[in-house]
Amino acid sequence: MKKGLKIILIVLGTVVGFVLIIALFSYLYFRANFLNFEDKYVENRNLKEIRANEYPYLDRNGNGSLDVYEDDRRDIEERVNDLLSLMRMEEKIHLLKGSGIASAMGDVDPEKGIPGVAGTIVPTPRLGLPTIYLSDGPAGLRIEPTRKNDNQTYYCTAFPIGTLLASTWNTELVQQVGEAMGNEAKEYGIDVILGPGANIHRHPLCGRNFEYFSEDPILTGKIGAAIVNGIESNGIGTSVKHFVANNQETDRLVNDAIVSERALHEIYFKGFEIIVKESQPWTIMSSYNKVNGVYTSESKELLTDILRDNWGFKGLVMSDWFGGNSAPDQIKAGNDLLEPGTNIQWKELIEAHEEGELSERTIDTSVKRILRLILQSQKMKNYDYSNKPDLKAHAKITRQSATEGMVLLKNDDSALPLNKNQNVALFGIRSYDFIAGGTGSGDVNEAYTISLEEGLKNVGLKINETAKKSFENHRVKKEDSFVKPEGMDAMFTPYNPPEMLTDQSTLEKTLQTADVAIITIGRNSGEGGDRVETDDFLLTKIEQELIERVCKSFHANGKKVIVVLNIGGVIETTSWKDKPDAILLAWQGGQEGGNSVADLLIGKLNPSGKLPMTFPVKLNDHASHANFPLDGKPFAMTQMFFKNPDKPEDEKVINQDYTKYEEGIYIGYRHFDKRNIEVSFPFGFGLSYTKFDYGEPSFNLSNDSINVVFKLKNTGLKSGKEVVQIYAEKENSTIDRAVRELKAFNKTQELQPEEEVEISLTFPVSDLRYWDEKKSDWNLEKGSYLIKIGASSRDIKQVFKVEL
């Protein structure tokens, strides 16, 4: 017996030892290839072999130092060419990839870098080129708030999610949000913000839809260009992502999006094209996925022919983190910067050049693009960043923008706004624990998040103590579930504590003191995994029962019920929307979300947000539903660090290894309106506390553009803003086209009761073209077009005809 036990212990010891050895070698391999492998390179090659007196125009300080990046007496192109002529080949190749992922993992000395940044453009100290810092993300900077031996906190402002910003339909306001983001980056020493996200909402279950703007490319492009212009007005770069067709998270590192040429040009390219032409971002980020068999980061057609030659993009393209399979192929395609950079890529690039696979001319093309960015950056201007951005001022902008993007979906019998003297009973855990934004690279380390409870208190409403105590008891019982993930865990683990169902006796007690009920429904998602239908798109049984129980009890006592949706993406609403008196779609409003909701609920401000996507009756009403992963399978982290060899065709799994975009151009309202399918809430929809009258339009054709003019009047009793939308329809079309497509929009100023303004909107005739796959070019169909002015895609107020 003892002998047997001894053998078992020996075997177990051997196994454990073997596992530990494997773990150690895996860690050492990871660290050697993916972390801070660049430091040694920089130190060993920080040589003073070129004397400044050989290049006197570089010696600005007169002390023999090479301060190339400070020489602003000549234009950037001259300076780029000079720098290129001074660089050794290994320095050029060194510049093509970042310094590893150490900063993002917190493995960096604050004296040598900025903890929490996602990546870098590496320094070249011999030529005076510093490190350029790249930081997430779309809703504000994501850097580590605390640092070793430093009492200061480096909090950043959590701005509203992209979908909420699109719901404002207000490009001027979104540009102000961008200006605040860019200023924060500037003061924290960040050079490029990795955002915004501009992918199309192809299907409601995409886990990152909250980062993106809309199901429509025109709205996506205009809002995206506005935020880029705002950020870059600070001399801070952006990286518009993820180019292109990154519309699912499931197996995103290997998925092949099989998309028609027409759908690419009319739907998936269009938003990016508008952003490039109207804001010229410093960088574009290529996506992980393939498009029609080729990784986007290795596609010359996408990155050179279309992006640069056709659209005139002048910046650099960087890869998504660990994206693509072949470093040399990425550089040859026009993907200039490989992020976060690995030792493996460094060796591949050197070998490819030595073997003649990667020419010096190709390398120089990418290096010049990177040098242009470096010379544009604030680092080149020796900007003395403060590490103290005006977070209070930015919080005000956050509150304003969040308020304008929240959408009033229902308001029967003027249930809203609330009376300030009312006692409010809050139900649902998210009433007390509001979601500021999604997880992943779209997350922010903010100083605080205002809950709905706090927001209501701040505007003077009374919070019902019975309902609150019930929640607090629930939180104590489920204490472990209310612990938020931290560090890297927070990147890919949405914080979703369990919902509670208020029992009938508590409800009866609550009714004794409460004047009105608010139920908050929350949803959280993020990078790395898609959503699912059950208990996510659909309400859970507890949520359904909660709405049923609260509505029945309060209505029986003549009291109103409001539902607040604290969500990042579309959920099912048809089965329950008839129960409450009002529904406010609050989205995820950043750190001031609770205050923004409260401003609307008491009528301090009038709701003016409009939906940037369709809310369907059923999930499978979407044309894309048959070709989308439905199991919420997260991507495999190991795919990020190792090459992904192609599977044999017969082993590939649909909607994982490849996804067929068989719906073509029929995404969102284009599909629902074409097929005349009932929806819960249409694209462009949103209620107000006031009413607007649309006058008769006039139009003219000038400079190949259609200009539409009409009067808009506030005929209600409260001041408010309206979003005016213009759609176009081709009469008697000979090709398969959408019934109507958004072509222009405008959000008015605040209109007082009985105030009337003239609205003038212009869009180019070229926007009426379709992509002709026979010609592989745009084509304008002659004949008559109906121009429709509406408050949503299904609420058309005025129509007129244009002959082309």
Question: What does the model show?
Answer:
The protein is of the alpha/beta class and 804 residues long. The chain is built from 23 helices and 28 strands. The strands form 7 sheets. A 6-stranded mixed beta sheet has the order 1-2-3-4-6-9. β11, α15 and β12 (462-463) form a beta-alpha-beta unit.
Task: List strands and helices in order, with pairings.
Layout: H1 2-34, H2 38-44, H3 76-86, H4 89-95, E1 119-121, E2 132-136, H5 162-168, H6 171-187, E3 192-194, H7 217-232, E4 237-243, E5 256-258, H8 261-268, H9 270-279, E6 283-286, E7 290-291, E8 294-295, H10 300-310, E9 316-319, H11 327-333, H12 343-354, H13 360-376, H14 391-405, E10 407-411, E11 423-427, H15 452-458, E12 462-463, H16 465-477, H17 488-492, H18 504-511, E13 516-522, H19 533-537, H20 541-556, E14 560-566, E15 582-585, H21 593-601, E16 615-616, H22 638-641, E17 658-660, H23 669-674, E18 679-681, E19 692-694, E20 698-702, E21 705-714, E22 723-730, E23 741-747, E24 756-764, E25 770-772, E26 777-779, E27 784-792, E28 795-803
Parallel strand pairs: 2-3, 3-4, 4-6, 5-7, 5-17, 6-9, 11-12, 11-13, 13-14, 14-15
Antiparallel strand pairs: 1-2, 7-8, 10-15, 16-18, 19-21, 20-21, 21-24, 22-23, 22-27, 25-26, 27-28
Considering the chains and any ligands shown, give keywords for the structure.
six-stranded mixed β-sheet, globular, 804 residues, alpha/beta
Briefly, what is this?
The strands form seven sheets. The chain has a six-stranded mixed sheet with strand order 1-2-3-4-6-9. It contains 23 helices and 28 strands.
